[in-house]
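User: My collaborator sent over this chain with a note saying "see what the structure looks like." That's all I know about it. Can you take a look?
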Amino acid sequence: MRPPILDTQAKGTISELYACNFLLRAGYNVYRNVSPSGPVDLLATKGGRHLAVDVKSLPAEIELRAQVRPGKPYATHRSHKLTNAQKQLRVRFLYVAADGTCNFDETALAMEIEERNIRRRMYVEKLDAEIEEDINKREAKREADAVPIEKESIFDKIFEPI
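Assistant: Without extra context I'll predict from the sequence alone. Here is the result:
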């Protein structure tokens, strides 16, 4: 028997409830957004860690378990992109299949980690360049301030030439 056809809002609400159940079972405290629109559907907290979640419903014809492949997005039917507000909040997509199966988009997570690593590498490279520049400046100053070494030996100072 086919499941009844639901309107988009009802389907979204059901998916959010599945997502809440998924997160609660994972040990999170879950808070729903009561506003009809916003960058976040759910806020989950666990041990001081906050997780902003945007729930995405998958069409009934897509079996989520079949979509789980390393390095591949779950929602192959549509490309979901984070808005600027969602990027600032570090929102993660949680995909919910028609059977209630939930999975985070690990591709987006991997991209976020890679972006963070790139920013860290750029920061380290900048620090390295600043340190190198500082070292060069100090060496140049030391060379400029250095007292010239006299070429006369102590022997010449003690015994005057005849």
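A starting point for your reply to your collaborator: Strands lie at 29-32, 42-46, 49-57, 92-96, 102-104.
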